[in-house]
Here is the input.
Amino acid sequence: MAKIIIEEINRLGHVVSRHAFDQLPVAIGRGYQNDLILSDPFVSPEHIIIRDTEDGWLVEDHGSENGVKFKLHSPASRPDRLTSGDDIILGRTRLRLYSPAHPVVKTLILPTKATLPQIIARPAVAATAVILALAILLLDEQLTAGKNTGIDKLLASTLPTFLFALAWAGVWTFVGRVITHRASFLPHFIAALILLMISMLTATLSEYLTYNLNGEWVATIIEFIIVGVALAGLFFVNLSNSTNISRRSIIISSYSVAWSMLLVALFLQYVNQPEFSASPEYPTELKAPFAKLAASKTPDEFLKDSEKLFITE
Amino acid sequence: MHGRPLQQRGGRAFFTTKTNLFTASLASAYRALRSVKQKQQSSRQYFTLTINYKLFNNSEHPLVNNSQLFFSLLLTSLLACVPFSVSGQQEFESKDEAEKLFASHSQSIYQIRVIELATGNKAAIGSGFLIDKQGHIATNFHVVSSFVHQPARYRLEYATLDGHTGDLELVDIDVVHDLAITKGDTGATRSVRLGHSKLSKGTRIFSLGNPHDLGLSVVEGTYNGLLEKSLFDKIFFSGSLNPGMSGGPTLNHAGQVIGINVSTAGNQVSFLVPVNYLKDLLSGVQQNKTQKPDLKSRIEQQLFSHQEKFINKLVKSEWKTTGLGPFKLPGSIDEIFKCWGDSDDDRDALMEHAYSNCFSEDQIFLAQRFTTGGVAYTYDYYRSKQLSSVHFYNLYSNEFSRPIRVNSASKDEVDNYQCHIDFVEFSGKNWKMSFCSRQYKNYPSLYDTTVSIALVSESDIGLVIQLTASGVSRDTAMALTRKFVQHITWQK
Here is the structure.
């Protein structure tokens, strides 16, 4: 059984290489006679020797030019006696020493459920999303067309939206390729389409609400919340599929980015409102008779309410 | 105000020559054409250049605009065709008369100047004439309006024929009839006598003033009657009035004032304020010599009582109704309203559209871009060409957002509109109704109001009704709206 395990750690704290030695002392340096050969040019050919003592490992400096530094994980009785888990720094190389009895963290259990990016990238889900998005876009174009429009023109008018979703997914795929060396396009694309559908449906819902409530702010708040959650969901898929950030950080950053974007948009809209408008501003939505859920007033009741608009002294 | 006020502003004359008049109309034709293209620019505006035909930009419907275009072009061509002066013998016979009148009155007629204090330059010019021995000089309200609104920025000055100038003091105004009386120590003693304005049609009359700052001149024309089908009486003068002549007198052959130059629609179509309004104003001034009225409250009081009289008369009168699709709606509710209408005939369009627009003649001039006193109502009727109700309402909904623009008042003059919107049921149908009003900042008892009503209970028929009244009080606005709504019925 090995008596000491030496890990080489990079600047980010990740393990670069791991070496197990059956016996001590262990000589470390750049020279080829060493037990552990380092390629760091700031390390001397014969840099240190680690010896076994009764109260820990002793590190002997062999007259190296750059010396040796210690990073102990707990205060030791003697600073030159190291125990399992302590770090030594030679030149620009950081080594961590472990004894074989060093405890390890608990085993992670493999997820039994598929992750969100995996679910939406399933062929059935993906195909359904594409067809639904196309249908919603076409229906919206058709229901707002002012003139008789052929299906070819309707399709053409949905293309820019699809191209935008494709471009968005493309960018995130590239990011994923650079960061995680994996490229998965479909989850990004489907997530973008789902966001698109949610925001279109929410906008429609908001129009119907505005129509029935005779006011805009309730509908705007509901729209704001739904779109905020959906946008955060999109960022969640993008980040979890293209980076190695932990799940918790992904949730925090996707929510904060999505909501701050919406808040900035809301703030800009508020700030850019003209101080004076020469025309009256009122909610102008009109919806088909079936959509009317609110009760009607009599003209007299309505006019009585309208009288409150006049400032009387 | 009928047509364009005849006051010249800060060197930027609107019509300087006949050619420019022509250009101005082309510009309006271009404006109409442009509004066809700019689909999103939906505000309707009044243009006062034509025979009070208010051009609107109902931009979704090219035909409306085409008719406007046609109208503007028609006017343009008329301008080019009309002979420059009255021809033949008449001119010969009247020459002596005009010459005599000019000689006897030129000393009592002045150029009225509004001088900007910081630069000492003229901000506006008009004409005026001496009406009594105390030195009272009559002119138009719109000539001195910038001084009235901002007395700290301007002062008033007169200039005689021989270039002598002196200060003027503003004594009283009649904002509704566009009159003002000023006072100055001009040294002249011979005032212009005030006559009456009941002449027979075709009588030769002579207008004096200072067009385009070119010097005092006399313009001969014909009296063409007192127009009573408007917000206020005015004399129709067939003669060429030009900017700078505002406030000058128009005389009969005996040298008596019959009216005061006020505005033009171009092309020998000009208007005068009947002299009896000046007489009323003058006698008021002479009766209370000591009191100097607070002009702001005077304007408010004049506008208030005018609208009260006008709207109450409307509300009390019997209204004619007109049919539009399955609806019966208020028609020309008073003889002062001019109605126009047409329908779209676009085969590709998914809705049929017919419309009717009624406007009261005239508006009261308050400030350069701020006119008031007008009432207008428009109907837009839509029928679906077998669209689904959702599709139809998506298109119809776009038409609910275009209220008539009553004036171009700025934020210093009016508040923002406040609106109340709700569902209303009458005539057995459901409607979406919005009532908006904005207060006048300087005249807090007056408001502009806009009522927009859209039918929402039929899946294939739409009707948008807009009723706008400017310069009205709460009570008159409410009474007018109430009566208006009572006259909207579905008669299927």
About this structure: Helices of chain B lie at 18-37, 62-81, 89-105, 141-149, 275-287, 295-316, 389-397, 474-486.
